[in-house]
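Sample intake sheet
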Amino acid sequence: MYVLAIETSCDETAVAVLGSPGPFLSLEETLPVLLAHEVYTQADLHEIYGGVVPELAARDHVQRVAPMLRRVLGSAGLQGRELGGVVYTAGPGLVGALLVGASVARSFAFGLQVPALGVHHLEGHLLAARLEEAPPAFPYLALLVSGGHTMLVYVAGVGAYQILGESLDDAAGEAFDKTAKLLGLAYPGGAALARLAEAGTPGVYRFPRPLLDRPGCDFSFSGLKTAAVLAIKGRDFTPQGRADVARGFEDAVVETLVAKTVRALEVCGALRVVVAGGVGANQRLRARLAEVCAARGVTTHYPRPLYCTDNAAMIALAGWYRRSAGEVGGLEISARARWPVDTLRPPGAPVPVASLSIDGVR
C-alpha cells in the first residue's frame, strides 16, 4: 500500500509519498517508509502582513501543489497507478487553503480510480513521532503545541484519542508569534523569539504562569500575552533588554506547558510523552520536559523539527493507517475549519471513541 498525501491547511504546501514495501502485519507492527516528500513555506509571502492572509495562502497553494505533486511522485519512483490511495488534510484549518489540497487530491484520485480520503490534521501531528526510526509504542501522552492548538491528548492507539486539557483561548504558538511581533522580530516570530531568548538573563522579567494555581490540565495564554504587551509596549529596550523579555516570556510558557504535562501524566499514568507541533521544536521546552519526565521514569519522544511543523509526511502516515484498514472516502470534497480530534475513531471501528474513559479528567 502506497499513499500520496497533500497538506494545505494553512501556509505550507506539502506533498509526500509513503508506503510499506513488505507484507502487512498489523497497524502496530508494520512501519511504512517515507519515499519522498517536499514542503514549501509561504513565510516570505505573509511576512509583510505580520500573519497569514487566508486568501493569499489559498492562491499560492493553487500555483504550487500540482507541480510539487509531479516532482514528489518522480522522486519516489512511482507511477500514479501504483498508489493505493490519495489522502489529504480535510481539516481543521483555513477553509480556502484546505479546499485547494482537497480538490487536487480528489480529482487526481478520480482520474486514477483510487480512493481519496480526508485526514485530520491534528491526527497527523499526534502520530508524527512514529515516522522516526524508534517510534513510541501506544499508549502515550501527547503534548500538541502549535500556532493554532495547545492540548494534552491521551493516545491509546491510532484514532483513539482523549483530550485531557486544551487552551481556553489563545494557543501557545500564537502567543509566541504575537510577543515576537511586539519585540520587532520578523514573522514567523516563535523561532526568532527562542533564538533571542538564548541571550536573555533568567528572572529579570517574570511573567505569570496561567492557570497553575487552579486544578486541571487546561491552558490559557491570553493573560500571558496581555502581560507581555504591558511589559513591552511604549518602552525603548536595549538589545539585552529585549533578550531578557524574550527569556522571561519563554520561561513562562515552558514552565506552564511542563507543569500541565505532569498533571496529565498523573491522570492517565502514561509512561511515554510525545511532543508535537511547531512549538514542539523549542529546545528549552524539550530539555526541561525531558528532565522532568526522566525523574518520573517517563520517556520523551519528539519528531524531528521538519515533522513538528506542518508537513505531508505526517498526513501520509495517518492516511496510510486508515487506508491499510480498508477505509475509503466518498466522491465529496471535504474541508472543515473546525473538527474536534476526539470525535475520530480507530481505523475500521464501527463506533466513535467517545467511550474512552479515564477517571478524574478535568
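Comment: DSSP finds eleven helices and ten strands in the chain. The chain has two domains: 2-128+308-351, 137-302.
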